[in-house]
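Sat 14:20. Reprocessing the chain from the morning session after the first attempt stalled halfway. Input below, unchanged.
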Amino acid sequence: MTKFINNPDSNTLAYNQLTGKKEGIVFLGGFNSDMEGKKALHIEKWAENNEYSFLRFDYSGHGQSSGTIKTTCFSDWYKDAEYIINKKTKDKQILVGSSMGAWIMLMLAKRNPKKIAAIIGLASAPDFPKILIWDKMTIDEKRKLIKNKMMTINYEDGTKNDFSYMLIKDSFRNLTLSENIYFNGPVYLYHGMADNAVPYDLSIKIMNKIKGTNDIKLLLEKDAGHRLSKAHQLANITNIIEEIVRKI
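Finished this time. Tokens:
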């Protein structure tokens, strides 16, 4: 059943939580996604069947949480994640970050490593507003974005996202790949080579930036796109979790 908690900024965060006998797992969703996605629900079902604790939630401006996506940005969503993990979980957690959620995951690994046992990145998109949007824009496009304060990107699968200039500016203050990431737990990254939204070389870059552990794996799937939500891909994700929990 969905519950709600108020964060320090007075936003109401929606969450669902299982309390199991084994390690805790936290799912961190992507930009403009919510906790009702296939990956989150698949992991939750697996966790319930295998007696693991599990937490999924909506960032401010996402899903059932308060606020709007146009008036919040990465700093808000990171604080949401840090707050609810500290408030609602005990001991070290396994973080599963999907797309932008992997950016939040990496920030948590840098800033709060004592709370994290392992990290799993799915189509990881750290620093994406700068790397994948701002850096690829022309001077005229940048001027237009600054003037209009919003822009829309259409993707090959027919979906689209609106991005604010506020989000892009905020991303510059939260870059994770500009320096090494020190983390000593297991790291597993899963990325589709046919991902047209977030290129898989970002996952390779993450591997090169992580220091302190030699337990880093990358699974590349040749024909997989960004979502990683087909039946066999969902099975791959829980297989990865199973491999991780045997190590910690």
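The chain is about 35% helix and 25% strand.
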